[in-house]
Amino acid sequence: MSTNIIEAKVFACTQSESIGKEIASAFGVKLGKISFHNFSDGEYQPSFEETIRGSRIFLIGSTNPNSENLMELLLMIDAAKRASARHITAVIPYFGWARQDRKDKPRVPIGAKLIAKLIETAGATRLITMDLHADQIQGFFEKPVDHLYASTIFIPYIQNLKLDNLTIASPDMGGSKRAYAYSKFLNCNVVICYKQREKANIISHMEVIGDVVDKNVVLVDDMVDTAGTLTKAADLMIERGAKSVRAICTHPLLSGDAYVRIENSNLSELIVTDSIPTKKQSKKIRVLSCAKLFAEVMKNVHNNKSINPFFIK
Questions:
Q1: Which of 7, 200, 266, 313 is the most exposed place for a label (fewest CB within 10 A)?
Q2: 136 alpha carbon, distance to own chain's centre
Q3: How far apart are CA 49 and CA 204, in angstroms?
């Protein structure tokens, strides 16, 4: 019998209310109530509508742009701290601003480090997130970070497809480690796309390294933004003789003309999680829930149990 007498409560930011309800249900509690006082100039003030003194608080909120999503989470963390919550765990399905994890040219910020410090300064005592753009972002925090992998969701889905001549692909060199991890688990080959960019979100040239003839290819990436890389890679692989091309991407940012590109591409299917709510529906996009994964990890964290069983890398 557990000796843990600290009460656990789950709350969600506005942008993550849908997944927050699912996580709370899987966790076994009702989603806590938060109200907002809105000022006419756009400023807002969140307020917990129940006592949280001495409790373990799980605050669910992805920090995808715009910056109001991040600001809302920071305000809620600060409110929980000042309301005497014993533990404040920021549950961030999608950790935004993570592409700024280093100085890749002079006079630019390391945005991911700044966001980490903001979350800690606000009062978070722990972080649970999924598929960071760069693993080393964990090191930007001085508090414990539980970094989950959506492979625990995607791999069973791929296995159920029962594809012959399966090949895992990375849409760029930076994702090769992720692709090799999937291929090792699925016991299949890997191909890599080499791309050159003119500037952010614009690709000037792409080549495929490896054989895709008569292969059922599954592209693996951590996020899909404008879908330019994914769709170009899919089209190129079909040109090179691939039988079919699917893509699995954890975080569906889907900005700009992403939906149009996906519909017009040679992608058979784009499989994503609900870490970020999708704004539009597409017959090619399939959304898999990550709520159960987060809920189970939260339970183990709350009960001081290992979360090792939830890792498939």
A1: 200
A2: 15
A3: 52
Which whole-number Å values give the CA distances from 101 to 6, 94, 110, 111, 199, in the listed order? 36, 15, 5, 6, 17
- How far is it, in rounded angstroms, from Cα 122 to Cα 170? 36
Instruction: Give the whole-angstrom CA distance, residue 87 versus residue 10.
Output: 12
Give the CA-trace dihedral at 56, 60, 63, 67, to 10 degrees.
-90
What does the alpha-carbon distance between residue 219 and residue 231 come to, in Å, rounded to a whole number?
A: 10
Count of CB atoms within 10 A of residue 33's CB? Answer: 10
Annotated catalytic residue within 9, 21, 162, 195: 195
Helix H or strand E encompassing 196: strand 189-199
In the residue annotation, 195 being an active-site residue is answered as: yes
DSSP string, 92-140: ESS-TTTT-SS-SSTT---HHHHHHHHHHHHT-SEEEEES-SSGGGGGG
Q: What is the mean pLDDT of residues 180-192?
A: 94
Are the C-beta atoms of residues 46 and 72 closer than 8 Å to each other? yes
pTM across the whole model: 0.93
The pLDDT of residue 204 is: 60
C-beta pairs of 39-48 under 8 Å, 24+ apart in sequence: 44/72, 44/75, 45/75, 46/72, 46/75, 46/76, 46/79, 47/79, 48/11, 48/79, 48/80, 48/83
Residue type, 88: I
**Could you read off the pLDDT of 206-250 as tens digits, one per residue?**
888 899 999 999 999 999 999 998 999 999 999 999 999 999 999
Length in residues, the chain:
313
Closest listed residue to residue 80, CA positions, set 48, 127, 49: 48
pLDDT value of residue 198: 62
